[in-house]
Amino acid sequence: MAASDDITAAVLRERLAGTRRPADPLDIVTPRGAYRWPEGMLEKVAATLKPAGVLIPVRSHDSGLAVLLTQRSADLKHHAGQVSFPGGRMEEADTDIEATALRETHEEIGIAEEQVTIIGYLETMPTVTGYAVTPVVGLVDGGVDLVIDKTEVEFAFEVPIAFLTDTANHRMVRREWRGLEFSMVEFHFDGQRIWGATAQMLLRFVNMIKK
Asked: What sign results for the dihedral spanned by CA atoms 7, 9, 11, 15?
């Protein structure tokens, strides 16, 4: 197993080499283990799931790798003020879910498709808000300038991979949704609370790259 401070871009490529873009963006994989959804939870949302794609942008710096996240605008109708990856709902013009993630990333934070090197994918996961979200992992040079669309994103920030892979920073919390209780991991970094589906995706990512 690679130590957290030994996780390089080459290690990420190796760990994610066997992953593939899903042929069906609605082919979900539900959370497992200690973070399994309670009975009946998936049934409440599965019938109306809509495909969505997000990019997990991994930025390279002299100090190491970091994951880029966004704080959503407080004026948005849905998920206002929450921490998330750049991404969104699949549109008819998108050729696949990867195209969705790259298009939304360019629209929200100005990183163009040619500035992203796709190195892998996480399993498509359902969210309680009714989406089947496919995370796409991409390398982005740390020197690439961001252009923030303030109508969608308040600001962007980075979390070092070394922080995310340290289990001491995995906070287990109890959540409730429509009367159903379940456990989830949260990350708290530099005053930012990363929770919900975004934290679950980060946890899946961490588990894959530490194996």
From this structure: positive
Residue carrying the six token digits 């379940």: 182
- At residue 183, φ and ψ (nearest 5 deg) are -100, 145
- Cα-Cα-Cα-Cα torsion 59, 64, 85, 152, nearest 10 degrees, comes to -60
Residue 144: what residue type? V
Total residues belonging to the chain: 211
| Chain centroid to CA 155 | 16
Range(s) of the domain holding residue 38: 4-209
Q: Would you say 136 and 101 are in contact if contact means Cβ atoms under 8 Å apart? A: yes
Q: Whose CA is closest to 194, among 174, 169, 177, 168? A: 169
Count of domains forming the chain? 1
Q: What is the CATH number of the domain that holds 153?
A: 3.90.79.10
What pTM does this model have? 0.90
The CA distance from 28 to 211, in Å, is 22
| pLDDT for 153 | 93
134-171 pLDDT, tens digit each: 999 999 999 999 999 988 899 999 999 999 999 999 99
Q: Which residue has the tokens 């969505």?
A: 52
pLDDT digits (tens, 9 = 90+) for 101-139: 999 999 999 999 999 999 999 999 988 888 999 999 999
